[in-house]
Amino acid sequence: MTIQSPSLELGAPLVQPIATAGGRSYWQSVRRRLRRDPVTLICAGVLVLLVASALFAPWLGLNDPYKTSMIRRLYPLGSPGHLLGTDELGRDMLSRLIYGGRLSLFMGVTPVVCALLIGGLLGITAGFLGGRVNMLIMRVMDVFYAFPSVLLAISLSGAMGAGAENTLLSLTLVFIPPVCRVSESVTTQVRGFDFVDAARASGAGMLTIVRVHVLGNVLGPILVYATSLISVAIILAAGLSFLGLGVKPPEPEWGLMLNTLRQAIYVNPVLAALPGVMIFITSICFNLMSDGLRAAMDVKA
Amino acid sequence: MDSLVPIEDRGGPAQPLLLASGLRKHFPVGGGLLGRGRKVVRAVDDLTLSVAKGETLGVVGESGCGKSTVARLLIRLLKPDRGTMVLDGDPVDEPHGITVNELRRQVQMVFQDSYASLNPRLTIAETLAFAPKAHGLPAAEARERVRDLLSKVGLEPDTYAERYPHELSGGQRQRVNIARALALRPRLVILDEAVSALDKSVEAQVLNMLVDLKTELSLTYLFISHDLNVVQYLSDRVLVMYLGKIVELGPVEAIYGNPQHPYTRALLSARPSMDPRKRTHEAPIQGDPPNPIDPPSGCRFRTRCPFAEDVCARVEPLLAETGRQEVACHMRVAGSGHSKAAA
Questions:
Q1: Is pLDDT above 80 for A228?
Q2: Is B277 exposed, middle or buried (0-12, 13-18, 19+ CB in 10 A)?
Q3: Does B145 touch chain A (CB under 8 A)?
Q4: Residue A270 belongs to a domain with what CATH number?
Q5: Could you read off the pLDDT of B142-188 as tens digits, one per residue?
């Protein structure tokens, strides 16, 4: 499993004029561009489906995801009563995949949201204040940056012990530095614009300036970047579970399922690959959606 | 916070509106982590100027001579390394004076880049209402003020208030910038190359509007530009800067009619002529200004001055009264040691 951090495209100016006709705001024109982008719309649709099915799993009339059966082990796909077959303990795969989405998606989104709050706050502070504060914050982040994200996540999880909470915590820590760095660089860029100087010259307080003039211009790029991190988080969380550092059995979770189905790979390879397919679909949808958002918000395109 | 009523005149007409003395700003460049071996750009060096009430003081000079730094120092977007400022008798940022925020209520600035100086995510009305609201003006009154400001700068409030900056032309955007500078009812407006980026016909409209606004609102302008014709049209007095120093300062007729400093003369003769028979054949001064990190000793202009002599490298010329203006040149000071100076 190789994990590549999404590339940061920071060279291009983020605040740009957009030619729109007749009194449309920036966000209105972003929405208009998104509506014309089928790939992003399909990915968003798939994600909504995944999230909705995970959320409403108990009401979907699925088999019990924890009910084992020694007789019905490793049924192939399309077996009667078990649409996607059964796993090595005879549990229904469809049901486990849908219930597994609950934990996997939660483990993908939560650390990114936490990192977004902490890293974003740190990054915007560093970018807006500049000088020594910036140096202090960013150099500390560089220390975390010195380790590859997978290695850092594994070592933090390993040190804190297995379990979902520790996985969340270690993933949050892993994602704070990149979010912080992106926030810092967009904030530094926005701070250099004359309208921020004009706001300072008007005698407004610093918090007011950040709220009115900085946040609106930096949130877009930061959120787009965070969306692309969700797919990395899902893969990392699955990876940690695969290694036995994340969720504990018998909890359904895609990474853990991938691990336990390993033994069935010669018996029923398609079945063993199913959790991986789910991880793949989810992360690629998040990635493509993030690309689509970036394109819709990049006014030069 | 105050209710944003226009600020009354205090010191009377003879009291300068703004008096800055000994302003200095050096920017450190490079150097090690602990600041050792650092060099400094001497952007503004011991500059003293006063702006009288109701006048327009023009500031001219080549790019990089420190014009914009002066503007930013006067409005305290940059903190001066040294020097004091007095606004209508009140020292700024000193124990018994007014605060920087009170200074900014009375001194506002218009920036050169009309696009970068407007927040692209805010409507024109939001941009204009920002400063009054930050000073505690209620929303309804702020809305009223926005309409008033827009019509003052010649933009129909109903048409433009809810638009975004990218929907306006350069001239319209600069009108909005001017309106924003007026939103707090300031007394002094610093115009930093405010019309330089506009094309000529729009520039003329905006200039005329500035002239009208000045009388209507009894404003005082500090007009910074590299365009000598515009400065001549607008200014009462002119200040010529070279490498962070004042080289000549005086009434506009004196500076344009009888320039005393060789640099001012060179600048004026570099103006393109409207008459094809009076072509400019040679560049009046050669080369670029020297690096402000390591400015020449003595007179900073001596490296490009055709009349430079020994004394110019040894002694720094001070501003001295010559005719109707003040000039910093050894040639104009009797007994300075320069061969062209009177004995």
A1: yes
A2: exposed
A3: no
A4: 1.10.3720.10
A5: 999 999 999 999 999 999 998 888 889 989 999 999 999 999 999 99
- pLDDT at residue B37 in the model: 63
What is the topology classification, in CATH, of domain B18-121+164-332? Rossmann fold (3.40.50)
CA–CA gap between residue B111 and residue A18 (Å, rounded): 22
Q: What is the ipTM of this complex?
A: 0.85
Contact residues, chain B, for A202 at CB < 8 Å = 104, 108, 130-131, 134-135, 180, 183-184
What's the mean pLDDT in B260-280? 81
Tokens of A215: 């946040």
Whole-angstrom Cα distance, residue A176 to residue A141? 8
CB contact under 8 A, B164 and A26: yes
Q: Are B189 and B130 in contact (CB under 8 A)?
A: no
Q: Which residue has the tokens 């989405």?
A: A101
Give the pTM: 0.82
Is residue B80 very low, low, confident or very high in pLDDT (cuts 50, 70, 90)?
Answer: very high
Q: How far is CA A41 from the centre of its chain?
A: 18
- Interface contact B184-A16, CB threshold 8 A: no
Give CA–CA dist A237/B148, Å, rounded.
Answer: 58
Contacts of B89 (CB under 8 A, 6+ apart): B10, B11, B15
φ/ψ region of B241 (left if φ > 0, alpha if ψ in -120 to 50, else beta) reads beta
pLDDT of res. B65: 86
The pLDDT tens digits for A12-53 are 444 444 444 444 667 788 888 888 889 999 999 999 999 999
- The residue segments making up the domain with residue A130 are 37-64+76-297
Q: State which amino acid sits at residue A154.
A: I
Chain B residues with beta carbon closer than 8 angstroms to that of A216? 119, 121-122
Q: What's the CA gap between A227 and A55, in Å, rounded?
A: 20
As a residue count, chain A comes to: 301
Distance in angstroms (rounded) separating the CA atoms of residues A167 and A152: 12
How many independent structural domains does chain A possess? Answer: 1
